[in-house]
Amino acid sequence: MDYELPSEFDLIVVGTGVIESIVAAAASRIGKRVLHIDSNNYYGGLWASFNLDSINKLVTENELRNELDKKDLLKENETLYSVGNNAFNLKIQSQTWNLPEKLEEQNEVQTETVDAKEDVDVKVDESWTQEKLLKLSRKFNIDLTPKLHFARGDFVELLIASNIARYSEFRSVSRVLTWLNGQLEVVPCSRSDVFSSNKVSVIEKRMLMKLLTSCVDGDEKEFAGYENKTFQSYLKDRKLTGNLIHYVLYAIAMSTDDTMCLEGVKNTKRFLGSLGRYGKTPFLYSMYGSGEITQAFCRLSAVFGGIYALNQPLNGFIFNNEHTFRGVLCGQQRINAEHLVMSLEKVPQSVVDFSAKEYISRAIFITDRSIMESDKEHLTLLLFPSINGKRTCTILELGSLTGTCPKDLYIVHMFTKQYTSPEEDLKHCVEKLFYKQEESGESEIILPNILWSFYYSVPNTFNLGLKCEQLHNVYMCSGPDMDLDYDPAIAQAKEIFTSIYPDFEFLPRAPDPEEIIIEGEDNNNVLNDDNNEVEEHSDNRTEENLQTQRNID
Amino acid sequence: MEDFKFLFKVVLVGNAGVGKTCLVRRFTQGLFPPGQGATIGVDFMIKTVEVENEKVKLQIWDTAGQERFRSITQSYYRSAHALILVYDISCQPTFDCLPDWLREIEEYASSKVLRILVGNKIDREDREIPTVVGEDFAARHNMYFLETSAKEAENVEKLFMKIAEDLMQQARSKDLPRYDSITTNISGRTSSISDSNCCSKLT
Ligand SMILES: Nc1nc2c(ncn2[C@@H]2O[C@H](COP(=O)(O)OP(=O)(O)O)[C@@H](O)[C@H]2O)c(=O)[nH]1
Ligand SMILES: [Mg+2]
């Protein structure tokens, strides 16, 4: 099955991250000829999800290729730029097993402890071994860039508006937690949560409801005078009690002590505005991992004629002497296109005259029980507030119902803005959630054990203002950012799409198959002359692209 | 709201050119398209059939051409109830690739998915893979086996009816792949949780 790629396109997209995939889908959707390639043999780049085996083997060094002997494929006045750089990839800090490799060895260890008759301290559940976990490797879908979706956020609205929603399934986040007075507490999110909470007094309930209402409905007058003050000072002036300020400031507004009032209000609105649509919290998580999202856009692109090829030997980008993009060199083949969109990791080293100013510290853990056990499996968002000068930290705990890990295990994702290193930046959270506190002797809480851990840094390239000054018809896509959802990614994809195709709608609704195909014997509208039938049955909402039937090759 | 009792997702895989798209179109539309059969913008096809007096809706997903460079998205396999693996009986390489396809299926599809092996294009004179070889392979891998011709409409109806019947039986004995019902479908029509007003355009 050695097919050759076609050699003329309107747009070549290199890299299958979220932004690249959205642009590819949007371009195919309006009938542009799109080639979407990746040198990786998986979808998603830095936004991908992996099974346990592959994440352990993850290679993050770009192989820099520059095949100068391919010069004969170039025309006069053309230059070849190598693909990729090492400035924008993720850096793995450590990958650690906290488990014996096999069962035999562990039995020995156990006999020893029994003989010693010392502490019957919390032990790793004797049944787990590295071997056993790796046998279940395929049941893991471990996100490099875990995301949640606001139920009324840009992402969900885009999925619905474009009809891409049919490729994905979601699960509601079932609880939002915070760390308050030395322990985990459930944040009351909805009106009914607030009223049923036994942590909040009746007076507090009224205060809280009133405050939330004024954040959502309040006009400018409500916040007059707070333009240069913090959200915390606003909350204090509203005479909220300490606990309430904690819930609103650190959880609902996902803010810190320094967050400005208007930003805090905006965040509060974002949170409250997504309540009550799908579940008990404002958030959804993509089944089988966040890596599915980029694939949903790629599928749409393919359905509209986009050509997909992973695992491609990308040998260079071709430019003319006005620095205008001409095409790519893929293996021995030259492929021409008018425009190039690429992931930041693929940008030629020689063009990279900027670097990331900020990094994200990230960690992933496989654990053997939930951070806060309950009679049912939860999908948890923990917003760890900034305490003792430490940064706020976003923590996500996923159980087997999300399709990202086997039964009886959990995956915990943590991330924060980088200060020193992932280990250092996240240490305070790890200690509180997974290690026994000396002081809290009375509690019988059994903390989860970390079976496997993975620390890594990702450059936060979102605010670099990526503009390719020296090259024409080239657009660069940032890597993962700190946003909980995909809002910045969608905004960037839309911006790129609009600069290439200013006169076209961005991801208009794709028709449903029901609108195209007529089934059942009771009508004889069987589609035998496709063009007419498609036109006839795909009501006004269907765009002209649909009416044309094209061959994929 | 809609008039069917069961909805099953059926996906097709196999090398490019073996006739997957033609099989789908033969079954759903009763035609054999000239040239390459893919229609731009058509994602999956739907046909409702009757099994034991019950309406069964089959949602049949095609690869969207992503198989050509071995770049099928994993999400394509998710939540499939049945999986049709197709090769071309007149083309040995399409048969030789079956183990690769099985590996991919095992990795991403549910272990309970109903798997069917199909040798297509039996109308052709230049057969390279004898029926028994296909049968053998299917038996070894626990698959149902059928030879078809999308062109001559041979066994195509039978293939999909067999799938509908088997899935229905599985559904009755509760042995279907279980796709958790608490998941949220946000597409705005299939699920009661979703908000049907939200299909408005984004401009
Ligand atoms: N002789 C014959 N040709 C077929 C049959 N089914 C498909 N083809 C041809 O095989 C080619 C590929 O078919 P297509 O359905 O596009 O294959 P796909 O890539 O697997 O979707 C087309 O030229 C079809 O006309 C069949 O049953 N008999
Ligand atoms: Mg096809």
Automatic annotation (TrEMBL), chain A:
Database matches in InterPro entries: FAD/NAD-bd_sf, GDP_dissociation_inhibitor, Rab_escort
Function, in words: Substrate-binding subunit (component A) of the Rab geranylgeranyltransferase (GGTase) complex. Binds unprenylated Rab proteins and presents the substrate peptide to the catalytic component B. The component A is thought to be regenerated by transferring its prenylated Rab back to the donor membrane.
Gene3D superfamilies named among the record's database cross-references: FAD/NAD(P)-binding domain, Guanine Nucleotide Dissociation Inhibitor, domain 1, Guanine Nucleotide Dissociation Inhibitor, domain 2
Recorded family membership: Belongs to the Rab GDI family.
Organism in which the protein naturally occurs: Aquatica leii
Source domain of life: Eukaryota
Keywords on record: Cytoplasm, GTPase activation
UniProt record, GO biological process: intracellular protein transport; small GTPase-mediated signal transduction; vesicle-mediated transport
Protein name: Rab proteins geranylgeranyltransferase component A
Compartments in which it is found: Cytoplasm
PANTHER family registered for this protein in UniProt: CHM, RAB ESCORT PROTEIN 1, RAB GDP-DISSOCIATION INHIBITOR
Region (Disordered): 519-553
Biased composition (Basic and acidic residues): 534-544
Main subcellular location of this protein, as a coarse class: cytoplasm
GO molecular function terms listed in the Swiss-Prot or TrEMBL record: GDP-dissociation inhibitor activity; GTPase activator activity
Automatic annotation (TrEMBL), chain B:
Compartments it resides in: Cytoplasmic vesicle, Autophagosome membrane; Golgi apparatus, cis-Golgi network; Golgi apparatus, trans-Golgi network membrane; Lysosome
InterPro entries in alphabetical order: P-loop_NTPase (IPR027417), Rab (IPR050227), Small_GTP-bd (IPR005225), Small_GTPase (IPR001806)
UniProt-listed Pfam families: Ras (PF00071)
Entry EC no(s): 3.6.5.2
Cofactor(s) needed by this chain: Mg(2+)
GO molecular function (one): GTP binding
Reaction(s) this enzyme catalyzes, per UniProt: GTP + H2O = GDP + phosphate + H(+)
SMART domains cross-referenced by the UniProt entry: RAB (SM00175), RAN (SM00176), RAS (SM00173), RHO (SM00174)
Transmembrane segments: none
Predominant location: membrane
Leading EC class: hydrolase
Keyword Lipoprotein tagged: yes
Cellular component annotations (GO), alphabetically ordered: autophagosome membrane; cytoplasmic vesicle; Golgi apparatus; lysosome
Keywords carried by this UniProt record: Cytoplasm, Cytoplasmic vesicle, Golgi apparatus, GTP-binding, Hydrolase, Lipoprotein, Lysosome, Magnesium, Membrane, Metal-binding, Methylation, Nucleotide-binding, Prenylation
Entries under Gene3D superfamilies matching the protein: P-loop containing nucleotide triphosphate hydrolases
Keyword Cytoplasm in annotation: yes
Signal peptide region: none
Topology class, membrane: Lipid-anchor
PANTHER family according to UniProt: RAS-RELATED PROTEIN RAB
Protein name, entry field: Ras-related protein Rab-30
